[in-house]
# Entry
Amino acid sequence: MTTADPPRRPGTALVGRAGFPQLLRAEWTKLRTVRRWGLTLLAAVVVTVLISLFSATSSGIETTGGGGGGGSPAPTGPGGVSIRDDFTFVHRTLTGNGSITARVTGPTGEQPRRAPEWAKAGVLIKESTDPGSEYAALMITAGHGVRLQSEFIRDVAGSAASATTPHWLRLVRSGATVTAYESADGRTWHEVGTVRLATSAEAVQFGLFVASPNAQSMQRKFGNVSVSDQPSRSSARFDEVTVKGATGGDWRLTDVGRPSGGGQPTGDGQGELRRAGGEFTLSGSGDIAPGTPMQPDLVAASLNGSQLSLVLVAALGVLFITAEYRRGMIRTTFAVTPRRGRVLLAKAVVIGAVTFVTGLVASLLSYLLSMPALRAGGHEPPLFPEFSLTDGPVLRAVIGTAALLALIAVLALGLGALLRNTAAAITTVVVVIVLPLILVSMVPLGLSQWLQRLTPVAGFAVQQTTPRYDQVAGLCLPEDGCYPQGAWTGFGTLAAYAVVVLGLAVWRVRKRDA
# Structure
């Protein structure tokens, strides 16, 4: 014999049987009916926009032009990327198909005595000696073995990741395709990769090259930054040089990207060739690679206000749970829905969704208003690239800012459920998020990057849009919006914090009385 459920009026639910959609509706009702919480969300939008706009209007610079090539304008590569294309090149003209092979020893440092890690020496095929022209270069680097590089941003590692010199290098041109080979003994060859040149020119320049990028170092102590960015000079020896194909003229020395053109060196920083029979010793400086200007990330700068509005968002996340504990209303909530974990998850979904929408409005307005102010202040191409809201990295930064504010609200909610005290939970948020944001611009760089990697502050890496390349050694300052890890890696760190804290909160509300 079974006992029927007691009759109930339509539209009512039995205690303890509320579904998750009903929980979401109940938590949304709680949030929207508390006026001061709505005002807090509005204040978060206003603070984000005003602080971002104020930061943009007060960060004007004076543009002086010039690039990395002895005062000539900086060339641009694929997609308008700022590049460096100034190096020492000993070359001949190749018409049609052909190849060049050389045994390379070096590069070794002349000034300073230790060559920079990305100093390079090798064989190169280039459309012309004009800066920014197409090329394929196979090289030995001072600290990263054999590399095949092209298009200024493409980098392929050879099998000899820590090649000892001398080492044999070979480039073979067949139409628009250039194939690179390396050998440790000159007999057994390994293919490194292929490059397809965009140029249709029949005649190209090929030969030997040396490049030595600037030697950079930085020290920071309690907010004082000392940066050293000095030109370097390296040399390499080439022998057993063989060329095949229709070549014209004798070897010529050209300092690509420098005013002197060709011939013998005429001034500081110019290349030098010493030749004895079939042996070439080549010295020079400069680089052939993506440019790495020490400039702030404009998109991240346009979203600066989010670093202050997170305090308001976090406070709302804490109050969304601790207010019920303080007033004793949580007992009623758990009486209606005994499955306490579902209640906390519903709160997390509601506060996360509402904060995301609020953050999206705030970040979108901040970007649209701050970017024109930054451009008006002198942050213009080519030093600062051109981009639009529809570009992938920009969209990721704007939407990611809304998502990171949502995660901070969920993290704060979890802390509120764990501590059940408004003051203690907000203080904890300040210690784990706000304090690291302040310290990253003050403490020594090593500690600063540790904070950026391992604390919830890592989530702000989603705002950085300045491209970073592994084949270029660059300085990374937190105050310029630069994070040592990738955008999604940093965002994942913050997400992990939010998930862990919320999980602990769910476990605790199930184990402890309200």
Q: What stands out?
A: Residues 340-376 form the longest helix (37 residues). The chain has a mean pLDDT of 85. The chain has ten helices and 15 strands.
